[in-house]
Amino acid sequence: MKTTVCLLAKAPQIGAAKTRLGPALGLLGTARFAEALLLDALSSWKNSELLIAHTGSWTPRLWEHVSIHAHMQQGEGNLGQRMERVVRAALRTSDAAIVVGTDIPGLGDDDARLAATALQTHDAVLGPSRDGGFYLMGLKRCPEGLLAGVSWSCAETFDETRRRLTCAGMSVALLPRRFDVDESEDLRHLQEFLDSNPTAMPCTRAFLGSNENQAISVIVPILNEAKRLENALLELREIPGIAQIIVSDGGSNDGSVSIARSQLGVDLVRSKPGRARQMNTGAKRALGGILLFLHADARLPKNASAQIRSALGVPGALGGAFRLRTDYDAFGRSRRWVAPFLRLADMRSRYTSLPYGDQAQFVRASTFRDLDGYREMPLFEDLDFAQRLLQRGKWARAHGPLRVSGRRFQERPLYYLGLMNTFPLLYRLGVSPQRLAAFYKHTR
Question: pTM of the predicted model, to two decimals?
Answer without folding.
Answer: 0.57
